[in-house]
Amino acid sequence: MDPLVAAIDQGTSSTRFLVFNAKTAELISHHQVEINQSFPKEGWVEEDPKEIMQSVYECMERTCEKLCQLNIDVANIKAVGVTNQRETTLVWDKETGEPLYNAIVWLDLRTQSTVESLINKAPGRNKNHLKHKTGLPISTYFSAVKLRWLLDYVDEVHQAVLSKRAMFGTVDSWIIWCLTGGRNGGVHCTDVSNASRTMLFNIHTMDWDPELCRYFDVPMEILPKVKSSSEIYGWMKSSSLAGVPISGCLGDQSAALVGQMCFKEGQAKNTYGTGCFLLRNTGTKPVMSDHGLLTTVAYKLGKDEPACYALEGSVAIAGAVVRWLKDNMGIVQSSEEIEKLAAAAGTSYGCYFVPAFSGLYAPYWEPSARGIICGLTQFTNRNHLAFAALEAVCFQTREILDAMNQDSGVPLTQLQVDGGMTSNRLLMQLQADILCIPVVRPTMSETTALGAAMAAGAAEGVHVWSLSPCHLPHVTSENYEPQINPDESEFRFARWKKAVQKAMNWETTEPFYNTNGLGRKLNSTPWGVPPTPPPTRVDP
């Protein structure tokens, strides 16, 4: 049988384990487990690191059982790749193997006052003060400010740092460390794509930056070793796959770029998951944006291979708006139902929804924004709200696509898409209508996991997957052509932009900081000096 390569796809809302044929890229088998999120306070989003690992083990074992039922020997799996939700921040004890606090999820807003203070201290109050090194604006989105919060307010983390027991990592680091032995020799590493999302990594030198670490007062000894996206990091120590190398690691959006085979400069893809992420390959030189996009490391497919960069438009809330309509509002009973409701309306009837639950990301980078629904009348019903929610995803994509076209000077003529929401055909048609260009969806939509599997299979010492252009598999796809008048599209987009302005500058401080003693103004208290009164202890 052809060799197989597996991928762990650990996302914000679920974990999956998928097995691919390394010669044809065919998906052979997979298993998925949903992940619980907790919201301890307004704006806070956490996940349990132990639950994350339990879901990884469960997905691996269930998939191996399914392979056995198909009479496929799991020994055919020659490598495992890891792809993950980026920026989500963990600290654990390397001696006990225990997490010292919940994972702080990328969407989390608890660091908003910290970010505002950092920006106020920056020359010219410039949120892009560190962009020349990081490619990123100062934002609640990235790992450094989340790590700073853990160091300041979680006593167990502070004590573990003092006693040299603390390890920091994004989700990929935690998974690889646990799978390669944990406290018994686990490998503490990350790849360049994940490291580039921390604000501690210099995207030019391709390593942790001492000056950035000093800026955030982060001890460098707790950071993982930075490696390429395609090399053997270590070997699985337990489970049905003991002895199999872990040889691929990519942040989820970089993995989707690889899985969509966007290896040429100028190629782009948009992934619709919890958030929405448009990446455009800019080749081996980082391109800085003048229109609110991020400059990020896309991948480095081998120790001796050059790093490739991307421009990225990041939207915080895409699929998460459907989850909100279901779990918080009870407007839909399942994610699939939103398409039926929206189709029944066929229009939002002048209702516009700006789901700025975590502020606004690209192109605004405005943490003070909050969600807003406007244009409501007595006629508005849940069908119209469902339609407005789907439209919101499309309008946000239009904003980042416009910014990318302005930065590159070469407009995209079609949009390659992937991710869970792309199964919603109405959404895909709306997207084509609002962008006024075709939307192209691969028939096999698991491109994020595929990218991680490709990186793992192509690694030196594995060599079961060829990434040379002549060996890349042919991908079948489905096309959605624009079906409305461009003038109507422009009118609706202009109304959306008006709604966005109404959502701006809603929150200027964090009330839950000001009322419970956790507040700290950077202009009055330096890092490392406890605020007065001392913060309430936060137990993990």
UniProtKB/TrEMBL annotation:
This is glycerol kinase. Residues 517-540 are annotated as: Disordered. One of its GO terms (molecular function) is ATP binding. Its EC number is 2.7.1.30. Residues 269-459 form the Carbohydrate kinase FGGY C-terminal domain. SUPFAM superfamilies: Actin-like ATPase domain. The lineage of its organism: Eukaryota, Metazoa, Chordata, Craniata, Vertebrata. Residues 517-526 have a biased composition (Polar residues). Residues 528-540 have a biased composition (Pro residues). Residues 5-259 form the Carbohydrate kinase FGGY N-terminal domain.
